[in-house]
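Hi everyone, sorry if this is the wrong subforum. Our group has a chain we'd like a structural model of before ordering constructs, and none of us has done structure prediction before. Sequence below.
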Amino acid sequence: MAQRAALAVIFFFSISFFKAQNVLSGVANELGSVHGNFQIDAQYYQPDSLIGAPNVPEKYLSNVFGNINYTKGKFSAGMRYEAYNNVRQGFDARYRGQGLVNRFARYQTDLLDITVGHIYEQFGSGLTFRTYYEPGLLYDNALDGVRVISSPVKGLTLKGLTGKQRYFFNTGTGIVRGGDAEVNINELFDSTLANMKTKIIFGGSFVSKYQSDDDPALVLPQNVATYGGRLNVIRESFNFFSEYSFKINDPSADNHYSYKKGEALFVSASYVTEGGLSFLLQGKRIDNMSFRSDRNESLQNLLINYLPATTKQHSYPMPALNPYATQLKGEIGFMAEVQYKFKKNTFFGGKYGTEVTVNYSRFNGLKTIPRADSATAMTFYETKWFNPDFNGKNNPFDAADQYYHDFFVEINKKFNKQWKGTFMYCNQFYNRNIVQEGSEFAGYKSLESQIAIVDLTYKYKSSSSIRFEAQGLFAKTQDMITNSNLVAKGNWATLMIEWTPTSNWFFAVYDQYNYGNPDKDLRIHYYLGTFGYNKDAHRIALSYGKQSAGIFCVGGVCRVVPASNGITLSITSSF
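Answer:
Right subforum, don't worry. Here is the predicted structure as tokens:
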């Protein structure tokens, strides 16, 4: 009898549930929509003195976050919860704890777009202002405040904002204020320029910070402003963009409290032809352009602006072993890339075509001229855009020592329905004193390396494949011995086999071998095994093995990754 009653109750609630489902689906648009994502990165650490992996007291560390966003018509709101108990090795230990670190509400009309709470925004290329979130670096300089966007007429966009930046689980002391205006000439005068092939967009930005002067020895500016302008010209397959920014004197820890003004110039031009040929040329000059809402901070903390990276962001581990980080104090350089796709059924293209990419990037420091201020008895420096003594032998742009260069040729080729491959040769120069240590007097020799990569994929079924990857890094110049610690690592080799039996499962084994280390006892194999499962927007991966110490960069912003040994779990999910 009790079983019958239970079945009746279950049946009743089942009917009610399905009716409720039908009702909810019918009014879903009225209720709005909810979407978001979650990510868990956890690691169990094992000490390994041979590779320099430290003894982690907690043993288990994790980075966890989840975003939940709601949208209904012109209104949207969202929040992000983060938990670091404690944060994984390689991230700033001040990310300790958990809580609701990001929340916003936004309402949009035809005239006004208003956001209160945490704001992610970018003016132009970011030379004056950019806030963004990069979980791989645990970088978040969101502005907690108010933003207003307005388009009073077609072709004109105005932005204004104010607030304080995120500083771990708090906010920084400085107040950031800014405005931006962008004009699309063709849209503004669409009655006369609507059919013009050339599109012209220009804009300007102004951003300032306020921080009280609490230094007993120096007279520091409490309001520091930066402003700039930009131009974007688009004509069919040609795109030209240029932006210049100027910053008044901003003594800070980055520039050793110098009163020198700052400036930055970024130029980018690209062209794509119908015949499969494309060009990209980018140039950048940075001079004392660190801009933070707290003058005493360093590393990634409380940066207001962003200095675009103009080097290749490699995905293969050997070219990415010594990545370039943008130098806030000063640099000048460029990147040029040519890509051509040989057509199908030609001598070089073969049956499926062949894609060839040639890329070269180079960065140097700026020549500095020491000057003394007789009024304050302080020493500062000057820089010049061009070398007045240029005679064909010197550098006309008044560049100093080389910081970095990267030259590579990459070939992507499909041989038949089953086989395809990627082949790369790379030549790199890496000034460790500047890029990694931040001082030309750090005492290391620069690293020169030749890198070769072969990446082959065999697809034996529509959703099944095996990928073979081999990489070699051959060091031409070793780092020197400093403070009795051998830091030279010499030549490296990397091998990987990845098997994807179905569209859901994947398995991989990986070995990074430092076979050229001058210390024979440190010629270590960094073995790593991993497997995972994908389904729709969900992914679970588990790996076990060793990881060598190095640097991980995204967009010119880097963090140091320590050596580790243990089990790593990664879960990502979106809805």
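For your construct planning: The CA atoms of residues 427 and 451 lie 6 Å apart. The longest strand covers residues 399-414.
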